[in-house]
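Recall that a protein's primary structure is simply its ordered list of amino acids. Everything else, from secondary elements to tertiary packing, is in principle encoded there. The following example makes that idea concrete.
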Amino acid sequence: MTSRRELLMAGAAGLLSAARVRGAKTKSSPFPYPEFEARIARRDFRDITKDVLPTPCMIVDLDLFEYNVKKMAAHGKAAGIHIRPHVKIHKSVDVAKRQIAEGAIGLTCATMAEAELMSGAGIKHVLWTKQPASVNNISRAVALSKRDPTFMFVVDDPQVVDWVEEAAGSANARLKIAVSVFAGMTRQGIANGQPAIELAQKVAASKRMSFEGFMAYSGGAAHTKTWEARRKKSSDDLAGVQETLDLARKSGLPVNIVSGGSTGTYNIDKDNRLTELECGSYVFMDTAYFAIGGKDDDTTYNDFRGSLTILTTVDSKRHPNQVTTDYGNEALNRPTDQVKGMPWLQVGSQGAEYGTLKWTEAGHDLKLGEHVEIYCTTLDMSTAVYDRYYVARGDQIVDVWPIMGRAGAPQR
């Protein structure tokens, strides 16, 4: 079946393929546009610049990305806390391998499919943060544990422990298990204190399971505005975890990990006795994080750089102080998005394939065919609707990183 992308590219053959970059002249493509995908497939990025890309698309500024990854790695080493980054933000083996290369001890995954993808790429010590409660997920979690003995997942219910133990026995597999405890969010996590200890003891007593420790994710603290308020929120959310850890020590339970934390609390949660951080957004950053404020600035969170943008094209210009773009609802356009380097623009939507950029300040304008780069609002949601990252140094594309696909059995 011919994809929408292929139809668009075929239709572009023989046309001018270079967008009118702000202030620049129109130029012809240095290669026939139908060759674009073939060039990408053979990793021939010569003459592939931003102006020949299909829009809307995701752009990673490689220099800023590398800055972010190195900064988080350096923080982990200096603070004495491990980094186990969350892949739901990027869903990319290429990004994950770069995080591991900088010292991450493993990865955190939200879905079984993510865990299978990352482990299948040879990455060890993957942590799946949801317990398997369906036949499908139980069988897959057990099978992955057998293929990859470093794989670990969480439980928060004794019934699930019984189910996975039975499945592990049938498959002659051993499982690495962490107990998910309540940390302020009502979506999962057994109550702290004695209930958590009893569940941990049940896991530890199993012949098929190895108890590894606890997961305590305080997601509500991640986007709490101002650093001081965030520190208090995180401390309050993790207060019960302190009781659980004290009881575990008294009962003789070995606790190898206490996993949790986020980009928003990365420089807070060592004080809350976490041993590893599940931070993810720091690699790219989005406008939701920009607004939470940092330790030294209550209004703007600038610990990490905005390395990911959505490249869009001005497609129509028929009304004053407004242009239409190809960045619409299907591409995850949001009114809280921000235009890179053009704070005078406001992002809006006009439908599935149509976006708008508006302005009120005098003296500003955009050109027909101009490219504009936009910071998205929520990374993990936006990433889910694109299939690749175009990696750039300046305007030059230097790499392409596939994003985990949205169709087929591996995605379910």
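Residues 232 and 352 are 41 Å apart (CA to CA). The radius of gyration is 23 Å.
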